[in-house]
Design brief:
132 residues, elongated, 6 helices, 72% helix, Four Helix Bundle (Hemerythrin (Met), subunit A), mainly alpha
Length: 132
C-alpha cells in the first residue's frame, strides 16, 4: 500500500467501534468502558510524549510511545488511533525519518478526534454503531 492509500485507509477507520471494544474486553461492556476510561486518561500523556520525541528527534522514544499507544488502544475499539500508532511504530522500526512528522500528526489527529468525541458527550453505548 502506498502512503496515499495508507492515509486514506486511516481516515476511513472508525474513531471508536464500541462493539469491537466490548469484544476485546471478553464481551464485558463494563470492562470495555473501564479500559476506555483508562485510555482517555492516558491520551494527553501519549500526545505529549509523541510531540516531545518528534521535536527532539528521539526515534526510540517515538517508537516506545507508539508501541504503548497501539497496545493500549487495541483493547478499546479505538480503531483509527490504533492503526495510526501501529503505522508510526512501523516507521520508527524502519527508521523512516522523513515520514515520521506526518505519521505523528496522524496519531495526534486521531487522539484529538477521540478526545472531542468524549467532550461532546456522545460516546456510543456498548452495543452502539461505530463512530467515524
Amino acid at each position: 500500500m502506498n502512503s496515499v492509500d495508507d492515509r486514506t485507509a486511516r481516515l476511513t477507520l472508525p474513531i471508536l467501534d464500541p462493539r469491537l471494544g466490548v469484544e476485546c474486553a471478553c464481551g464485558d461492556p463494563v470492562t470495555w468502558r473501564e479500559a476506555l476510561d483508562l485510555l482517555y486518561g492516558l491520551l494527553p500523556e501519549y500526545a505529549n510524549s509523541l510531540s516531545g520525541a518528534l521535536q527532539t528527534g528521539d526515534t526510540a522514544g517515538l517508537h516506545r510511545a507508539a508501541h504503548s499507544l497501539s497496545g493500549a488502544s487495541s483493547y478499546c475499539g479505538t480503531v483509527a488511533v490504533q492503526a495510526a500508532a501501529k503505522a508510526l511504530e512501523t516507521l520508527c522500526l524502519r527508521e523512516n525519518v522523513p515520514d515520521l512528522p506526518d505519521a505523528v500528526q496522524a496519531v495526534l489527529h486521531h487522539i484529538d478526534r477521540l478526545i472531542q468525541l468524549r467532550q461532546s458527550g456522545m460516546l456510543p453505548a456498548a452495543d452502539g454503531e461505530p463512530v467515524y
